[in-house]
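U., I forgot to send this yesterday:
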Amino acid sequence: MIRELTVEDTGTYCCGVHKDLGTKIYTPVELKVKKGSLGSREVTAYAGTRSNIKCRYDDEYKEKPKAFCKMGTDQRCIKQISTEPNRLWSHDGRFSIHDNRSAGFFSVFIRELIAEDTGTYACAVVVSDEMEFYTVLTLNVIEDLSNEKSISETVHVGGDLTVNCKYPESHRNDNKFLCKRPATAACSYSSTVRKSRTYINEGKISLYDDRETQIFTVRIKRVNEQDSGEYWCGAEVNWTSNRGYKVYFTQIDLMVTGEFV
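Result:
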């Protein structure tokens, strides 16, 4: 295992066996290290919430299996979750993985984060039985008691919903979003708020981010029973880059009841 590779590590190496009578058996291994931006990075998330981590890979590995694992004290992978052939999703407890081959990255979803999830992880590409490579990230799970993590609302059909999602100061300048979670681990959304104090309207949903007060406001007009479900207020942290991830800071449980009177 070679950690923290540099371009200068490129070269020919030998795996050797020393036998009796001084006999030596060597197997040459040619190592090529490409310059890139996939070095180690840090991800911050919040206990009781969830996170979506982006793991980028080169196009030549599109068809190769992908994996995500926690690194043990001996720098070996433990608690590994891997993609499965011909399946969009793979799940293992609170961890899910999805390979977005058209975009050149796979996503790792971690639900119901706990402090014990803090540690060093690896995004891996399994090239063959003999070789895999990975990029390392450090996950820091923070217990943030200043922000409300879960909000439950009951609204009559035809009524309006307004919820204020307070977020940590560290996400003041990040893009914000609202998403609705279906039965899978994914959380889909179509609108992103990129500016402070600017309304974004998507049908009957209106979003507003006041970065001065660190409050992300969600409004849903004229709700119906189909609007019931689990929503999340979240922030994109450098999501367009190779080092991006998403944090979900407030869960909204919406229940829509009978006709509005």
